[in-house]
Write a structure and sequence with these properties.
Order of helices and strands: HEEEEEEEEEEEEEEEEEEEEEE
Helix content: under 10%
Number of strands: 22
Radius of gyration: 19 Å
Shape: globular
Structural class: mainly beta
Largest sheet: 4 strands, antiparallel
């Protein structure tokens, strides 16, 4: 069976549909249901900070609340990075307007407690460790001089102070001559811990420069998922995930993998988002499996390999097909508490790009995940 998958992957690569391999075994997730939405106003504030740019989301079981990371790079009097605590309450099994409430804000600082310089961190993803530590992924700034690499950092969940960094593989580090590493604004957008907290997974939104082109309307892009050991901070595996092509051919456009949410040690919910000025947002939820996928840890460029079996994926829901619902810039995703009927609650969250006239959208889904 593995040889068959390799042959399929190579055939798809030749045909231009690089590494898009569907899940062959039955999916874990047979059903996803829309359970409503709520918004926060774009001009909302908490403790003197503007609330917006909410890019990553995680559920804190200890308190029954959620933590959301803002991708605001800061400014005069504005701390960055910062994490908002909020609640999301369902009424009669539905998320309605007013169901999301802001509670507090936590500033993430240097190890000595001093403020991170404004404009130096582009925080995007958030995960919670078993001991309450926060993990934050940042895209870096590859076009800066000198380039700022992407990062995954660990912070004390109470004080917000920096504790340590994960060891990002060399292939991701940006270089201008020759062009290598992550692309600007297409790097570590996602972050999730596997159940139990042993591993921490993040992914690039699009391909590394040396791995292939960014997504276009004609073709998708081979992203890399990197798995870290949370104790040692070292990378232990990498996998290839093929993100979809851009939907819509009019105006400025972009598409890619914006969030991962670990179901178990081998499967994720994967959120892909596409935008074009002519077509708006397209948001799709996939189930992805690394079973049979090639570990490409240490591979400098995917173009050096013709035997790579990618992560397999299967579409669960195109949010644009929900009647009466208009998705916006959804790029955060977290499990919530179990629903009364046994389904898992999943909350999606949109980044409003810090536009005061544009609300932050929250979407509730009921996901059936049978025990394995």
């Amino acid at each position: 069976m593995r040889c068959d998958r390799v042959a399929v992957a190579m055939l798809l690569a030749i045909s231009g549909q690089v590494w898009a391999v569907p899940i062959e075994d039955p999916p874990i997730v047979p059903d996803v249901a829309f359970l409503g939405q709520a918004t926060l106003p774009g001009n909302a504030t908490v403790e003197g900070t503007r609330v917006g740019g909410l890019s990553g989301l995680v559920f804190d079981e200890a308190t029954g609340t959620y933590l959301a990371i803002s991708d605001d790079k800061g400014g005069p009097g504005m701390p960055a990075p910062r994490v908002y605590r909020l609640s999301a309450t369902l009424e009669d099994g539905k998320l309605n307007q007013g169901g999301v409430r802001l509670e507090s804000v936590l500033e993430l600082t240097r190890a000595d407690g001093s403020r991170v310089p404004e404009g130096s961190v582009d925080a995007e993803g958030i995960a919670l460790g078993p001991n309450g530590d926060l993990f934050i992924s940042a895209e870096g700034m590859p076009n800066a001089s000198p380039p700022v690499p992407p990062s995954v950092d660990r912070f004390d969940g109470t004080s917000g102070r920096y504790r340590r960094s994960m060891e990002v593989p060399e292939a991701y580090l940006p270089a201008l001559q020759p062009r290598r590493g992550v692309r600007s604004n297409l790097a570590f957008e996602s972050l999730t811990t596997t159940p139990g907290g042993r591993f921490l997974d993040t992914a690039t939104e699009n391909a590394l420069h040396q791995d292939g082109p960014a997504a276009s309307v004609e073709r998708g892009s081979p992203c890399r998922i990197v798995r870290f050991d949370t104790d040692s901070g070292m990378p232990v595996a990498e996998f290839v995930y093929h993100a979809d092509a851009i939907v819509g051919k009019t105006g400025a456009n972009v598409a890619g993998l914006v969030e991962l949410l670990a179901i178990d040690g081998t499967r994720w919910l994967a959120l892909e988002r596409s935008f074009s000025t002519g077509s708006g947002f397209t948001v799709r939820l996939y189930e992805a499996s690394l079973t049979g996928a090639t570990n490409v840890l240490g591979v400098a460029s995917l173009t050096e390999r013709d035997d790579v079996v990618p992560v397999r994926k299967q579409l669960l829901l195109d949010l644009g097909t929900i009647e009466g619902f208009l998705p916006t810039n959804l790029e955060g995703m977290a499990f919530g508490p179990d629903l009364e009927d046994g389904r898992r609650l999943v909350i999606l969250m949109a980044d409003n790009q810090l536009m005061t006239f544009f609300p932050s959208q929250f979407v509730a889904l009921g996901v059936t995940i049978p025990p394995r």
